[in-house]
Amino acid sequence: MARAAHGGGGMGLLARAALVAFVALVGVVGGARAQLRQNYYGSTCPNAESTVRSVISQHLQQSFAVGPGTLRLFFHDCFVRGCDASVMLMAPNGDDESHSGADATLSPDAVEAINKAKAAVEALPGCAGKVSCADILAMAARDVVSLTGGPSYSVELGRLDGKTFNRAIVKHVLPGPGFNLDQLNSLFASNGLTQTDMIALSGAHTIGVTHCDKFVRRIYTFKQRLGYNPPMNLDFLRSMRRVCPINYSPTAFAMLDVSTPRAFDNAYFNNLRYNKGLLASDQILFTDRRSRPTVNLFAANSTAFFDAFVAAMAKLGRIGVKTGSDGEIRRVCTAVN
Ligand code: HEM
Ligand SMILES: *[C@@H]1O[C@H](CO)[C@@H](O)[C@H](O)[C@H]1NC(C)=O
Q1: What positions does the domain Plant heme peroxidase family profile occupy (predicted)?
Q2: Which of 106, 123, 236, 307 is most buried, most CB within 10 Å of its CB?
Q3: Which band of pLDDT confidence, cut at 50, 70 and 90, is reported for residue 30?
Q4: Does ligand 2 have an atom closer than 6 angstroms to the CB of 328?
């Protein structure tokens, strides 16, 4: 993710927090509190949600990467300028969010699935120009969670798509894999999310992958510094060294949930209890005594995890929503109208 975050160096925590607070403020002030609601398209495009689900489901069957990729896309969309599908915009010169920082590893399969879902909705009778890409992202994120074994839930809709994007802020407003609990909490708090929300949402790492560069420091650094390199199970560490040798390939990756990488379940939290969290930012949730009770709760009770995840996803989906003249309903997700 952000290079500064990896080393813990670069921008200081305070400067980073101030920037994050500023960006969050601009996001909130820029779009007055939107009125999101469930079944928003019930009369204007009643088949929107079922169409998105069927397109996403087809793509998920062709490529499992669509599942984790879509979930991560929604998270990155909401944390960068609010949930306005700015992450989907493609600049002809490559000067867009998807080519910056952590967004450079967003799944192309997921991006394609969202674009196809949008096209399918646009083609429904009477639906052209009615359903925003930001909402399609929210629906698709909901769908991949239940399609991979997680909870089913209704999703609030009514977002508009943003008209601009900002490549530069991407690396300042997303969390890095080397973040400690204080850094995670302050970034999520600046987006209106609590520590419990943050832990529940980290449970999204129950599916999907991470490239070697995001955790390689952990497996070749012997010094275990609390807050930067929390402990790792020795067998797990050895197997990760086989996946990512010192001269690892930039395309090599490992599963974020070593036990059930394709199931949306609470195994991620159980892994943490055995020091089998891959990213430092995952393992720290168990190592730090302030967040450990919540990890233990989610590990012991998957209903508690699912309930907290659904609640936190709703809050995530409300960040920086656009409603007025600062938004529009795009014809295609990759370009403003
Ligand atoms: C808590 C702070 C978080 C940090 C530090 C973090 C960091 C990361 C990193 C470094 C990767 C691997 C990227 C790569 O190498 O390609 C990743 C993947 C992923 N993240 Fe997070 N993440 C966080 C929170 C979240 C949240 C809130 C969600 C969604 C609700 C999420 C969903 C995912 C998913 C599903 C993947 C797998 C993507 C794929 O397989 O294509 N993450 N995350
Ligand atoms: C698990 O969590 C749910 C939801 O919070 C709660 O209703 C249930 O009683 C818990 N189960 C156990 C065995 O503690």
Answers
A1: 35-337
A2: 106
A3: very low
A4: no
One-letter amino acid for residue 265 of the chain: D
Judged by DSSP in three states, 324 sits in: coil
Domains and CATH numbers, the chain: 11-174+317-328 (1.10.520.10), 181-313 (1.10.420.10)
What is the structure's pLDDT at 32?
45
80 is in an annotated binding site: yes
The pLDDT tens digits for 153-195 are 999 999 999 998 877 788 789 999 999 999 999 999 999 999 9
Tell me which residue has its CA closest to atom 2 in ligand 2. 304
Residue 86 is assigned to a ligand binding site:
yes
The Å distance, Cα 337 to ligand 2 centre, comes to: 47
pLDDT at 324: 87
End-to-end CA distance of the chain: 30
Tokens coding 31: 């779009």
Nearest to 281 by CA among 202, 209, 173, 177: 177
pLDDT, average across residues 22-37: 55
Indicate yes or no: pTM above 0.70. Answer: yes
Q: How far apart are CA 32 and CA 289, in angstroms?
A: 37
Task: Give CA torsion, residues 111, 7, 200, 73, to 10 deg.
Answer: -10
Strand blocks (E) in 34-175:
161-162
| pLDDT at res. 103 | 78
Residue of 269, 296, 298, 303 with the most ligand 2 atoms within 8 Å of its CB, for mutation: 303
| Candidate of 75, 80, 190, 291 to mutate for ligand 1, largest count of ligand atoms within 8 Å of Cβ | 75
Give, using CA atoms, the residue closest to atom 3 of ligand 2: 304
Contacts of 196 (CB under 8 A, 6+ apart): 294, 308, 312
Question: Cα(233)–Cα(255) distance, rounded to whole angstroms?
Answer: 15
Contact residues for 195 (Cβ-Cβ < 8 A; gap 6+): 181, 185, 188, 290, 291, 294
What's phi and psi for 16, nearest 5 deg?
Answer: -65, -45
